[in-house]
User: Fold this.
Amino acid sequence: MNKEHLIFGIRSIIEAINSEKTIDKLFIQKGLKGELIKELLELAKGKNISSSYVPIEKLNKLTRKNHQGAVAFISPIEFHDLENLTLKVIESGETPLFLILDQLSDVRNFGAIIRTAECTGVHGIIIQKKGGAPVSADTVKTSTGAIFKIPICKVDHIKDAMFYLQASGIQVIAATEKANNSIYDINLSIPLAIVMGSEGKGISSSVLKIADHTAKLPMYGEIASLNVSVACGVFLYECIRQRL
Assistant:
């Protein structure tokens, strides 16, 4: 975590949230009580900011300053509104290509995917506010700066984002080994959003149910799956091949 994006002290964090700063992580000391901490927690809940209760030793490792039992990290980027971004892409006349990451948790995979997405002309990456990999200094580093060049949208629920894209004429394809169709049998030249799942569980069943299509990569080895960032790269470059 980058100390440049660290803020500490209950009042300082409250001010940051009220100033519309995007908080990536909020750490609260276990057992901390009082009206001020109650105000911070209610504010964080209202803004859908997830908080973690940790021992004071954890906070002391993050900063030696007087943190008052609360430390937060501000996101190094500004997030985009999905509806505004979608309309902008459609109005541009280009064929939309979005990437949806369903509970991806590894920041290095996240950064690698961002880098590939920028190289392949993805118009935007959609992530969920809770449960996924944070946009941290490690993400920025692994993306080699690509994170500053591609719009990222944080949404409350992945499924709602999918419904909105579908209503906008953009079909959703889920990348899963459970699919019957190969990626090479699917038309990827249409307005499209590709869903990639988490490293361990893949795409959640509720997300799979509402996807327009599912597709898998042919596998000939004994290992059953690819690293998610590698699989994502194959899907995106097949999109390019078809669109060229």
About this structure: The mean pLDDT is 91.
